[in-house]
């Protein structure tokens, strides 16, 4: 299992350090407006942006090249399907194809999300505590790091969306 910690830099900060084994591997810089973000991973910048009706799609691109999209199939659903994976993200380190990737809220009463590949659970993301904006993503080793960081960024965006709705 790989474990990624998303550590918020401050109480009201939009920046998250992504740590693996205590070592920083990525930086997530959330946009002030909307649900966009920039992810710096291993010296490469990735752009994340929400689009579609009611921001139902969240895309990841690198230098203008589309890599993956997280799509909510219904307004009433808390599930996101990861679609149109770029070939470099579509396979695990063991050569197994990542098909039917889905991000599903664990239950109506908690904020945790599960990462599923078909019917098989391959990971989860939970907050580090009730009072913290930090989170931990646990996943199988074969999930590519770029994809794991994108999934974590999507969940953080969803939590921010839920907090904004609750505050109104």
Q: Please, could you describe this protein's structure?
A:
The protein is mainly β. It has one domain (2-167). The protein contains 1 helix and 12 strands. The protein has one helix at residues 145-167, and strands spanning 2-8, 15-20, 23-30, 37-41, 44-51, 57-62, 65-71, 80-83, 101-105, 113-117, 120-127, 135-139. The protein has a 12-stranded antiparallel β-barrel. A hairpin with a 5-residue loop joins strand 5 (44-51) and strand 6 (57-62). The radius of gyration is 15 Å and the shape is globular. The model has no long low-confidence stretch (mean pLDDT 86).
- What Rg do the Cα atoms give? 15 Å
Number of helices: 1
Give the helix proportion (percent range). Answer: 10-25%
Secondary-structure-derived class: mainly beta
Mean pLDDT: 86
- Major sheet: 12 strands, antiparallel, barrel
Span of the ends, CA to CA? 38 Å
Strand content: 35-45%
Give the neighbour order of strands across the main sheet. Answer: 1-2-3-4-5-6-7-8-9-10-11-12
Whole-number count of domains: 1
> Which residue ranges are poorly predicted, with pLDDT under 50 across at least 5 consecutive positions?
none
The helix/strand series, from N terminus to C terminus, equals EEEEEEEEEEEEH
**E-strand count:** 12
Shape: globular
